[in-house]
Amino acid sequence: MTQTGTVRQNSRHAALGISDEKAVAMYEIMKLARMYDERGQLLQRAGKINFHISGITQEPSQTAMAFAMDRERDWFLPYYRDYALVLSVGMTVKELMLSIFAKAEDPNSAGRQMPGHFGCRRLRIVTGSSPVTTQVPHAVGFALAAKMRGEDAVSIVSFGEGSSNQGDFHEGLNFAGVQKLPVVFVCQNNQYAISVPFSKQSAGKIADRAIGYGFPGYRVDGNDPLEVYRVVKEARERAAAGEGPTLIEIMTYRVTAHSTSDNDLAYRTKEEVEIHKAKDGIPVYRRYLTELGLWSDEKEDELTRRLRAMIDEATEYAEKAPFQPPEDSFRYVYAEEGEAR
Amino acid sequence: MPVIEYIEAIRLAMKEEMERDPEVFVMGEDVGLKGGVFGTTKGLQQQFGEDRALDTPLAESAIAGVAIGAAMAGMKPIAEMQYSDFMFPATNQIISEAAKIRYRSNNDWSCPIVIRAPIGGGVFGGLYHSQCPESVFFGTPGLKIVAPSTAYDAKGLLKAAIRDPDPVLFFENKKCYRLVADEVPEEDYTVPIGKSKVMREGGDITVIGYSMPLHFAMQAAEELSREEGVEAHVLDLRTLQPLDRAGILEAAAKTGKVLIVHEDNKTGGVGAEVAAIIAEELLYDLDAPIRRLCGPDVPAMPINPPGEKHFLLNKEKLKSAMLELARF
Amino acid sequence: MAKQVVEITMPQLAESLVNATIDRWLKQPGDTVDMYEPICDLITDKVNAELPSTVRGTLVKILKGEGEVVDVGTAICLVETEEAAASAPTAPSAKEERQAAVPAATAGAPGLASPASAPMPAVAFDPNAPMRSRFSPAVQRLAAENGVDLARVAGSGLGGRITRKDVLAAIGSGNRGGAEPVHAPAPAALSYAPTPAFTPAKAAETLIIPEVEVDEGSPAPGGREYSIDVTPIRNTIAKNMRQSVNEIPHAWTMVEVDLTNLVNLRKALKDDFKKNEGINLTFMPFLLKAVVGAIKEYPLMNSVWAVDKIIVKRDINLSIAVGSEESVITPVIRNADQKTITGLAHEIHDLARRTREGKLKLADLQGGTFTVNNTGTFGSVLSYPIINYPQAAILTLETIVKRPVVIGEMIGIRSMVNLCLSFDHRILDGIICGRFHQKVKEILESYGPDTKLY
Please, which residues bridge with residue C347 across strands? Predict the structure, then answer.
């Protein structure tokens, strides 16, 4: 440990103001998200749950996004692959399991929505839906509210590159640009909108669209969490300083099928997938931490055991947990008697 | 009690609510400096500043979507759609988002938004400045829909909508803006959402409707009373969703002869649901087939004056339908 | 082209505007105005604008001054032009005029064509009306719950339909359908007399009986009264009755007739008659035949008092009284003397049917010279008919009853009937009427197996 002091001074994360503990915590979240995601796929294949949608390979950038924000003040509007993001913001793996089993205790929707439709007021994670990109104007609305109230809050919103073609993307970005609102738009470009490759979604870079709305856009390598952290952090600072929004295009690759209902080999080759699996950011980041002496094989083993136990326990808990009573499924269409909110 | 115009009632409701609650604000195209294309938001920017009478880009989905976001953040936005004809780009935000936010989050989130949109024709607006889109949104659980016919109700319902914890579509009738004026108290009041109102008592036929056509019904009712001795019972639904079942049933049972009237087209309109409610619950009180007098099932009204006149309801059409039912 | 004064009206400057204020006149009377040249400044809630002229000419008169709020469509000034009126902005298009004339067919209420000005029909009792037995759920429920016999309730609705209000009124009146039709009180046994000709429009109203309204306005002693509106038909009947009674000195006489043979004759013929003719054989055609025969012998019965003379009618046109619930009208069988018993039977049936259906023509009601009324149908054995003004006499056929009768030295059971006659004593005296009466009796009693119906 004597060497760490020296290394830390020169480390990339220290230069970004990330403490060692935080750098390690980021890694642990990435791992947790990955293991949870793999468990989700297994549970679906085992017939325990109906559906799972994966965020594998996108965990490093999602984790970095969340860590770059103020998790006490900011608003998070994730999209359906953002497991690492919501785990970073404070959702527990037990809560995610309750969601994937669609149980009453699920804080996202009490088992009403599909998994991946996050929402938790306690964690400032804004409820989302399945029609894509509707959350972009919402994020602008949160930013508008923050600005009107003079609050030091920024909203950050995720969406895919396919979603970037929706009207709500353009309408939302334009609105935020005109009003110089504190919002960070993050496009997680994983190259596929279900089966349609990026080349058939856009003829240019998503990031370049920002200039048309009067604010900066950046493209960043999603396998490099520290670079993602840097760019998002800067965007947050610009937003908080009243300089308006930023668009960030995170370049990543979806190594899983779109969902458990999709056969991706119908539209792409195994070879292509393997190439990208080899670029997975998690082992790279682990090596980075290991080289700095912040991580070790022993720690890895210990972490894997700990996370596995945690996931096992969460799985068991969620599987046994009760569903929302069917009669309660008619509740909360409107505010109930005496509710002000 | 002062008599004020329908449009002024709407403006005053917003003004007073913005004075009462700093989280209330209005946003939309031209609502700021100009005060709205109809003048509904006149003076609000001067009084409350640019942020609280916010001119937005010309993008209806963003107007709705941003307002929804702000509402989830705890604000009380009033989003104005310049014409209800132009709110369809915002339909996804309204139906997929606003309507479902409370339900999908199991009451964790809410969306206290008001979306105001002028409906109705008779102003030479042609196809796309005259429509009544109620039926597009009607039947979407999670939304509340109001459509006042009087200045009193316009003010009271808009205030109630702004204070309501759930999304409310406020369909104001542009023909009523300056044609309708009635007594509106100066002191603060609200009109409860979900409650219909008996506009006129009568024992021969029941007319159920909302918005502008009710004024034709009232004129026709007075004439029928004078000329034919026919007494019409007229019910203003005021709220389209949730419908006031009890009010509808009470009014329908009163005479057993029901005429439902609205400007929105007949097929799939609100009237169809009103008729179904009556048919479901009041078979043994019905003395005549339930009738509907509605806009025709054509896409929208033409701008040429004879065509527009032919499309629209008026006192004569109401009178004729009411008399025919009375004689049945 | 001739000079023409054209109104310039306040246009609808923007959607939703219903009026505008004239700020300033830019033209004064006498000024020439070019097409589209501004003539005044307008202020509205939405826009402020100059109002361009829609015609070329000379401003003649300003109708609305500065500062006045003017409704859309109201004339604000007059311009004298040399153009045809067709170019004037106020002229509606031919199409518009045409469309205005056509009742708008709006999706919704079917059959909007019924004119709004037609009067509301009141309650009628017509057992054959097309909608009579189409009961709405509300009517069925109310009838079942309150023990109302719908067959006896008059229908005020379209096509004679019994409405919910009709049933409620029946319940309210306490008359739930006993021996008498609800809302259709049985005609009085006495003083039941026909009225003279009506116009066809009024004939249609003969199916009307007044609506019963319970007066809840004044809690008068016990509130045990209610008022009935006088319908036009009732009013006409009243007027005619009063005129007849006021002007004609009525005298009255009655004879008793033995109809036993006729009863037997009818019994023997009625089934075949029904089969062959499709209508029932009643006593009326026999009576009419007898009356016609007697009139031929005593033509003064068929006359009119004309103050300085008595007009005797050559045509024998018999008015027959056809009653409905609350009125009576008297359609006419023309040249009744030229018809057989069968022919008369058809005439009676036809008139009665058309009376019920309201399909009588004016001619059906005009030209009667003598009236016959079958008061026996409602059980009367003696009535004092009022003459059908301005005729000279009226005869009633009362109920046929079996009675013990002295025949020679024996007592037999005979079918007896009374024939009552009221006559105008200015024209007729007891002797001639007695003879007439006896002649009718004679003919009726002479009917027997040999009587020819054709």
Answer: none
Cβ-based burial of A216 (10 A; exposed 0-12, middle 13-18, buried ≥19): middle
Q: What is the mean pLDDT of residues A243-268?
A: 94
Q: Which residue among A127, A137, A149 places its CB closest to the CB of B65?
A: A137
Spatial CA neighbour of C451 closest among C342, C333, C335: C342
Q: In Å, how far are C72, C199, C204, C214 from C323, measured between CA atoms?
A: 57, 17, 14, 26
Name residue B173's beta-bridge partners: B119
Q: Identify the structural domains of chain B with CATH numbers, from first to last.
A: 3-183 (3.40.50.970), 197-327 (3.40.50.920)
Best of B72, B145, B166 to disrupt the A interface (most A CBs within 10 Å) is: B72
Question: What is A4-322's CATH number, 3.10.150.10, 3.40.50.970, 3.40.30.10, 3.90.1640.10?
Answer: 3.40.50.970
**Candidate from A220-229, B80-89, C33-42, C115-124 with smallest mean pLDDT:** C115-124
B93 → closest Cβ in A75, A134, A333: A134
Is residue C200 scored above 70 in pLDDT? no
Kindly provide the residue ranges of all beta strands, DSSP E only, lying in chain B, ordered along the sequence.
3-5, 24-28, 53-55, 76-80, 114-119, 144-146, 168-173, 181-183, 197-200, 205-209, 232-236, 239-241, 258-265, 291-295
Per-residue exposure over C267-285, b if at least 16 CB sit within 10 Å of its own CB, e if not: eebeeebeeeeebebbbbb
Cβ atoms within 10 Å of A304's Cβ, excluding its own: 12
pLDDT tens digits for range A281-296: 999 999 999 999 999 9
Q: Write the secondary structure of B2-71 as one string of H (helix), E (strand) and C (coil).
A: CEEEHHHHHHHHHHHHHHHCCCEEEEECCCCCCCCCCCCCCCHHHHHCCCCEEECCCCHHHHHHHHHHHH
Subunit contact C137:B286, Cβ cutoff 8 A: yes
The rounded distance, in Å, linking the Cα atoms of C27 and A150 is 56
Q: Which amino acid is at B34?
A: K
* CA separation for the pair B81, B79 (Å, rounded): 7
Helix, strand, coil proportions of chain C in percent (round to 5)? 30, 25, 45
| pLDDT for C177 | 57
Same domain, C398 and C372: yes
Phi-psi region of C307 (alpha: psi -120 to 50; beta: other; left: phi over 0): left
Q: What is the dihedral of CA B82, B87, B93, B98, to 10 degrees?
A: 70
- Do A121 and B109 form a contact (C-beta atoms < 8 A)? yes
Instruction: Please give the average per-residue pLDDT across A87-92, as a whole number.
Output: 98
Residue B104 has its nearest CB partner, among A109, A120, A138, at: A109
CATH number of the domain to which C324 belongs: 3.30.559.10
- Which residues of chain A are within 8 Å of residue B92 when distances are taken between CB atoms? 131, 134, 168
| Amino acid occupying residue B27 | M
Query: Which tens digit of pLDDT belongs to each residue from A162-191?
Result: 999 999 999 999 999 999 999 999 999 999
Q: Is A268 a catalytic residue?
A: no
What single DSSP character describes residue A264? Answer: G
Q: Which pLDDT score is estimated for C92?
A: 47
pLDDT at C84 over 80: no
Write out residues in chain B with pLDDT < 70, as ranges. Answer: none
To 10 degrees, what angle do helices A135-149 and B60-72 make?
60
Q: Is-contact B132 B295, C-beta < 8 A? A: yes
Give me the number of domains chain C comprises. Answer: 3
The answer to whether B107 contacts A331, with C-beta atoms less than 8 Å apart, is yes
Coil, helix or strand at residue A15:
helix
Structural domain boundaries enclosing C203: 137-228
What is the model's pLDDT at position C181?
Answer: 40
**Predicted pLDDT of residue C176:** 66
Instruction: Find the helix or strand (DSSP H, E) in which C210 lies.
Output: none
Q: Do B108 and A121 touch (CB under 8 A)?
A: yes
Q: pTM of the prediction?
A: 0.70
Q: What is the pLDDT of residues A153-163, one digit of tens each?
A: 999 999 999 99
